[in-house]
Amino acid sequence: MQRQLQWASFSLIAALLAACGGSNVDSTAPRTAALRMGSAGPTAPPTASAHAALVQALYLAYYGRVPDSGGLAFWTGVFENLNLPATTSALYDAYGSNATVKSVLDGFGRGTEASDLYAGTNAEFINTVYINLFGRYVDGGRQNFWVAALDRQAITRSFAALAILVGAQGGDQTALAKKNEVATRFTAALTAAGLTDTSPKGVIGTDLLAQVNAATDLVAYQAVIDAAVQSIAQDIAQTSLLRYTAFQNVYTEIATPVRYWLSFGRGTIPVPSGKLAFGLGERQIGYAKVPGSSSLSVVYDAPIVASATIAAQPDGTAPMMLMLCQAAAESTSDVVRNKSTDMLVLNAAQMVTNAKELAGQTLSTYREDCGVVTTQNIVFDTEGAATVTDASGSKVYPVASVQTALNGVLPGSLRVMDLAWRAYRYAKADGSVKYAIVSRTMSHISIPPEMPTVTAAVGASTASSSTAALGALSLWSQE
């Protein structure tokens, strides 16, 4: 009876998925001729296995990358030896009634790589799946639907990723088909050349897929695939890959995982350099360490004009937390122009969700627009209540208010400014444990010029109509 009830809940999810615009489309169906146009010939599957296309699609949903040869062989072997379904739609149908299917899929989605990629909240998880599969942010309605189901534990993350994969339609189905096509071409080209993607965690293939969306011209994109294969053939080593969670200053966007890696040429070179990729594919910039400068002097390409770093490593090349700032831009709203800020937090940092975990801590360094202010601080008492001292003075917030800010959004004065806190515990290079809070102030209505100065909720600075901004980001930390 319990299993029948469980499967009934999955059937309900399927119905709700359809209501949200999804359809039970098999994303591992044979590629169409239209998708092959312009390629050198018919697209070859990664291997002769009937499960190869399925495993490739699951790698995309769960890990956002092309499967490595070892992983592809392992998982196709698992699916074949257990005689599991060979398509995503059949796998989806069997998840609620077949204990073996559920066990394998849950194992696929709970590995170390998945845990690293999907560190954070259920909202961040869903957004990452959408970026991996479709190259876009999830819209609010679907986000709310999936997050609510995950929060009440009606479904697992493994099932959610599979259901989103199976339910693709329209532009999402097009994007998914193109990503699978690129993955297939890349794998086939590596196999033909006798190569494997030796970059850490398959970063070359990951970057290749991250740039694909529904609008990608596959004929033109073949040159990008060829260049990726050539980079592997030339043994251009990717020495490290670190994953971050990013916060952007547009209040409607939720945090999104990002890729960050250091790239080196052959042998040893004195100046680390590489790419920083965050958000969607167009948000990619280069960076380089300045020769002869201090250990923390890393310069980022345009449009970044300033940065502020909490280092994870002594040489400063691996930030634990990184604030990137762009120049001020005109706003079309009456809310105002301000610097565009992005805040990145290494996924190795542990998220703090209980106010009592912050008891006794003092965060005495405040960063805003990549500048440091040491006269502002947050002091937590022995219970986790916070005394916030900022430009407007000091105010005490009870534990309940701190808890609300950590777990969601705390409405501010006059309900014109909302604030969310994301607290982290992190270890510095010397092994010491520190705490930090990313503070996001979000304006959800237009602020008329005549409105008096408004003090936002916990941790937000006093703002007037000339300084308030959509999605203002700041960082409180210990140094």
TrEMBL record:
Keywords: Signal. It comes from the Bacteria. Residues 1-25 form the signal peptide. Residues 112-164 form the DUF4214 domain. Pfam families: DUF4214 (PF13946). The keyword Signal applies. This is DUF4214 domain-containing protein. It comes from Duganella violaceipulchra.
